[in-house]
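Q: Can I see a sequence and its folded structure?
A: Here is a first one.
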Amino acid sequence: MVRALTHAPSERDVHVTNWSGSLSFTAGWRVWPRTEEEVVGLVRRATEHGLGVRPVGSCHSSTPVMATRDVLLSLDNLSGVVDHDAEAGLATVLPGTGIEDLGAQLADAGLAMENLGDVDYQAIAGAIGTGTHGTGESLGNLSSALVGGRLVTAAGEVVPFGHDAGDPPDSDLTRAAQVSLGALGVLTSLTLRVRPAHHLHRRNVMTHIDWVLDHFDELAATYRHVDFYWYPRSDLAQVRVLDEPGRLDGLRVPGRLKRESSGPSYEVIPNHREIEFDEMEYMLPREAGLATFREVRERVKARHRARVAWRVLVRTIAPDRAMLSNAQDRPTMTIALLQNATLDYKAYFEDVEPIFLGHDGRPHWGKKHTRTAEHLSRMYPDWDRFRDIRRRLDPGGVFLNDYLRTLLGEEGRDR
């Protein structure tokens, strides 16, 4: 049957575990296409055989968006920056490109992403498809950098969109593709908005959480990147501020300097962690963010302090227009609960989640949450529009699994 599906490298009955170890499944086939043509052939033959297809990058997601009993289409061999236009501020990137590699390759061309996330383990298509973000009140999530690309649909057709189709950047298909969960098809090429390569100066300071809360709004309005970790077993927080060299000269934070570094943006922004963790993150309206954090802090101190080994991370995101972006149409503050992967997370996450929901929070698509289509459909103004586009591109649900059917409110079962 593998030969009937593809000539690309493949394995049968592959056990797959996500990055943190909290999810696992066995795929009937795992396939590594090397070209867009191999993706097209694979999707066509899978559809003919009545099989589902799920694209996968680095398996960093904490939700089972990639899980399938059928064909797991790995993007690993579709990697690299293949073109760039420095004058236009655009780069063409293959979907399996690791974010760390992407930073280095763009730097070789004198370019950089506008922003990056807290870690750089992910493949770029997976990070964009789930709305991964960094921090900065004037900076959108990674998905907002996607201005065009090429998409292989369930019929095995290659559909260009956005810049690649000569369409405006706010076309419906582009806005749907920016945060698609891999439910529209397989991205085989991404056109990203980029900026000139630049250096950043980073300063991390350990200080009292009350000082951070009193000064966060001022810091976030003054500097390019600002976030903080609160350590639940203490009243300490680590505030992190990044900006162009020279811009931090006037920064004064009472406390102990934890880290200071300068260098290329793609090296300075991400944090490198050796320990795996599970995570829940919600995106809140910016104006409600600090009040929500204070409520979360009191809940953690009252019920969870003895069992929480990791910190709570707070960041900001600029609004965007992607149909399923959790920063859609509103300045956003994010609050993430992190728990060591060797410890139980469920009671902690599910006890705090109602606080997020009570403040109009939207869950991160790649992190733990309990929401389904019944709740999510009320959070997104373009929910039905996205589903209409998905059904047009994939009427048979080739790119859906059980989890996505529940998440998006589609009928049927995993193919």
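Q: Show me another, different protein.
A: A second, unrelated one:
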Amino acid sequence: MNAMLQMGGNTVLSSPKGYVTVSFDRSNTIDISLTAFLLTDTDKVQGDSGIIFYNQPNGPAGVATLLPSENAGNTVIHNLQFDLSKAPAGISKIAITLTEDNHTGFVNVRNLKAQVRSGDTVIELTPSSFSKENGIVVLELYVRNGQTKAKSIWRGFDSGLEGLCRNFGVEVEPEEQAPKAVQAPPVKEPVKAPPAPEKKIVLEKVKGKINLDKGQKSIMIEKTPEITATVSWKTGTDYDIYALVYTKDGRQVDVAMFGAAGVPPLRKFAGGAVEHMGDVGRNSFSTKKEVIKLRLTNDILAVVPVVYSAQSNGTGSFYRYKVSMSIDNHSGTSVTISAKNANDNDRIYTCVPGILHNTPDGVIISPLELYSFPNSEYRPMLRMGADNMVEVVMDAGPINNYK
């Protein structure tokens, strides 16, 4: 369900967790940053940990996480993941703010808009015009009488980050004009993908038939010229699989037989380094399978197979239809990850069984068994996490095309 929220209006969210997306037209003359403030009932932060920004992207206990910004054509997109059910004691509100760091003002920002995605609801927020403001409170997420709510603010400050910080009780150093203990460099360099992992990961290679469950340690298998990732399920519904590929230069490439918003279908990547072997469609077989073929090159850091059941296909439970993924190196080793922790919720449409990391020593397989929010058809996103290992963020990517 989509809804518009006018400036000053508020609405109840169907879930305490979700995503805030802010987008605008790219320009060489503007530089916009997103900062979130974790606030008490008095609209003040409790300390430096209450400021979420590009140098400190993770809030305490997972209440808020700033994801890497991305470009989609001529549009710049900032994403913030939130879960107010994880708010530390005393925190009842998240204020989402923007600053224009080149001090040209938001009057020069084109097609500025915000979106809140929570549960099965997408809320659109569009501001009125701005003039010389270079700091804006876009919206607030807060808990009132046990309900999670969103309020459209779009209030501007002429004093940019300093004005926002003072407004929320953050001490500002006079010379730096930046939050205390947050030493942001005067010029932000473009975010570059980290180099391939230098720290050697020591895992004994396994052979034979292996079953992995969520929570078990990662394993390593021999990297052969051709590896297949096969997803199988009992007949009764129509699943599709696709693969997210993370490259050394920090790109995510989606290999899928169907597209998503701004992402066209792509059957194979890099001349067949990752290749979808075809959609099985609907048939009468007792077990259905779809296959992703991998011929891993050094430019690929990780591959994440994704299992998807579109709303248009009807309901479908990953648990009920016994969905599993098997990784086979065709040299005597196969690893199976089953959706054992799924429930019978027919409104969960995306499952990520596990992730494959491509290393010089072999292929590391980690069981994840991650699921999307109910009623969400947004794709996962990949990002570089701790120890130069790729991470999966559910529901943070583009929405799948109608199938």
